Amino acid sequence: MAQPEAATIPESDGLSDMERLAQDERIQALCNALDRAVAQRGESKVQTLSGALFNLIERGFWRPGDKLPGEKEFSQVLGLSLGTVQAAMRELVSARLLERRRGAGTFVADAKELGSSIWHFRFRTLDGKNLLPWKSTVLSVEEIGDQGPWADFLSFAPSYIRIRRVNDMQAFKVYSEMYLDGPRFRPLLDVPFEMLAQKNIRVFLHERYNAPTFRGVHRVASTSISKDVAPLIGVDAGSPGLLIKALCFTFRDAPITYQTIVVPETPHELEILG
Q1: For the residues of the chain, what is the DSSP string, one character each?
Q2: Between 17-40 and 45-58, two packed helices, what is the crossing angle to 10 degrees?
Q3: Residue 236: left if φ>0, alpha if ψ -120 to 50, beta else—which one?
Q4: What is the pLDDT along the chain (274 residues), one digit of tens a residue?
Q5: Domain 113-272 architecture
Q6: How many Å apart are CA 266 and CA 51, to the nearest integer?
Q7: Alpha carbon of 241 to those of 151, 166, 173, 229, 250: distances in Å?
Q8: What pLDDT is attached to residue 37?
Q9: Nearest CA to 158 among 186, 189, 191, 187?
Q10: Would you say the pTM of this structure is higher than 0.85?
Q11: For the domain 4-109, what is the CATH code?
Q12: Where does the chain hold its CATH 3.40.1410.10 domain(s)?
């Protein structure tokens, strides 16, 4: 499908020599990824191209805010029809991984813009005002081998990264555990707790690891707060509360994070977001 020896973009693109070299390296990597994908599975050309582009963006070949070559340039250097390239790009734009800017071209979507739509829940006061976390504290970030309900969702990874946090809402506290694929997100073990405490972790995953969250499924059930969690959020063991499970997905609905959130009894209104 791809022709690596011809994998260079036209010199009339307005790029500097360094920018053109970087772009040529990206195109070469895309050619190689396409060749591997064709050899490994029998997807359509559109699916193969969109999947290869997503994988390279995820690996950092293109970062949020980077401009991609034009569709005609992709078609020329990859040896694919313009229609195939356009369909693959539409799929990535529809998934919000890419964004089109009128008169400027196609860019990798900005993590902050994507992150604004992936808050999973928020609380409202009785007069309808949003109640935002006053302080977030990271309790631990560790790699575990335990198999729990997260294992099935994350396709039984060899290990898991677990992030434990407490969010202080001023009126009450919320406890959460987030699970991610261990081998893929092992660098999180070296991130300072203060950095994770200040961030929406899903935005951080997109910014740092090009791992965007596109949608979430939320399941809510009543619960009795366990003796391990109760002192962390300042309530008695056995107190009533809510257990929220947030199952999050990235491109093509591949699972990316499994999170549980324990909320104590509160008069505040809970709004679940998509």
Answers
A1: ---GGG----TTS---HHHHHHHHHHHHHHHHHHHHHHHH----HHHHHHHHHHHHHHTTSS-TTPBPPPHHHHHHHHT--HHHHHHHHHHHHHTTSEEEETTTEEEEPPHHHHHTT---EEEE-TTS-EE--SEEEEEEEEEE---SHHHHHTT--S-EEEEEEEEE-SS-EEEEEEEEEHHHHGGGGGS-HHHHHTS-HHHHHHHHH-----EEEEEEEEEEPPTTTHHHHT--TT-EEEEEEEEEE-GGG-EEEEEEEEEE--SSEEEE--
A2: 130
A3: beta
A4: 444 444 444 444 554 544 555 666 777 777 776 665 554 555 688 888 888 888 788 777 788 888 888 899 888 888 889 999 999 999 888 877 889 999 899 998 876 555 545 556 778 877 777 777 778 999 999 999 999 999 999 999 999 999 999 999 888 999 999 999 999 999 999 999 999 987 888 888 888 887 888 888 899 999 999 999 999 999 999 999 999 999 999 887 889 999 999 999 998 888 876 5
A5: 3-Layer(aba) Sandwich (3.40)
A6: 44
A7: 25, 15, 12, 11, 29
A8: 53
A9: 186
A10: no
A11: 1.10.10.10
A12: 113-272
Q: Do residues 216 and 246 touch, judged by C-beta distance below 8 A? A: yes
Residues of the chain with CATH 1.10.10.10: 4-109
The per-residue pLDDT for 39 is 44
